[in-house]
Amino acid sequence: MEKRNYRDREGGGPKRYYSQPKADKMEMIFGLRPILEALHAGKTLEKIYLLKGVKHSISQEITEMAKAADIPVSLVPSEKLDQLTRKNHQGAVAYLSAISYSPLDEIVASLFEKGKDPVLMVLDRITDVRNFGAIARNAECMGVDAIVIPSRGAAQINADALKTSAGALNLIPVCREPNLKETLHFLKQSGIRVIACTEKAEETLTDAAVDLTGPIAILMGSEEDGISPEYLKRADVRVKIPMTGQIQSLNVSVASGIILFEALRQRQKA
């Protein structure tokens, strides 16, 4: 996995064109120049919306810097931007992230250097903010070292996510990756086994053969259709949670708590 340039320093300069949208509960920046200034200052942006079909040197620079920092950029019609704010947005709106993201490669290297067996959670398209917050809370309580999410198709980390996590998102590192397929390959190459928690598995969590000790990354799928097939086939182990009821499915945050508890139980016993 190629090492990328991560920046987390706070920049100076006046905070212009900032507002607090009630719907998303995330701090907004609007205007091309303020967004560019935020990027140069090393601010962590959750997402950037740019007006579709407009070519401008500043918007091009924003796009290039966002790509380098793995910040999602969406090209949208003016109606979408007008829905986000009634201010003079100049064809550009961005949201500041409620947290600072961490570089996965540095976290993995640091954990191995400390002699620890990493326990990571990889979330494939978890889009519900409260589910994500609850998963983060489970992860922090059960000793997970970091949470990995995709740059696109993941829940926005806003005030609701922070509240649901009970502060866990301020304690546990979150890594935002542009390509989960490459991320899973990197983890496997680093000696970390990928454990897929899926209803499509043959083995159950209570089977004696299911080993959740050592360096692992637990892969959880979306609320709608579970783990993507392209990611599922890259898992070293597939495991399902045994159930005896008629519904035969669990909320993803509940499922995460169950498998994390079993991982913690095995690791304390080992």
Automatic annotation (TrEMBL):
Xref: CDD domains: SpoU-like_RlmB
Annotated ranges, domain RNA 2-O ribose methyltransferase substrate binding: 28-102
Alphabetical list of InterPro entries matching this protein: Alpha/beta_knot_MTases (IPR029028), Ribosomal_eL30-like_sf (IPR029064), rRNA_MeTrfase_TrmH (IPR004441), SpoU_MeTrfase (IPR001537), SpoU_subst-bd (IPR013123), tRNA_m1G_MTases_N (IPR029026)
Gene Ontology cellular component list: cytosol
GO biological process: methylation; RNA processing
GO MF annotation terms: RNA binding; RNA methyltransferase activity
UniProtKB keywords: Methyltransferase, Transferase
Keyword Glycoprotein: no
Keyword Cell division among record annotations: no
Entry EC number(s): 2.1.1.185
Enzymatic class: transferase
UniProt superkingdom: Bacteria
Pfam assignment, any one: SpoU_methylase
PANTHER family linked to this entry: 23S RRNA (GUANOSINE-2'-O-)-METHYLTRANSFERASE RLMB
Protein name: 23S rRNA (Guanosine2251-2'-O)-methyltransferase
Organism: Rufibacter quisquiliarum
Lineage: Bacteria, Pseudomonadati, Bacteroidota, Cytophagia, Cytophagales
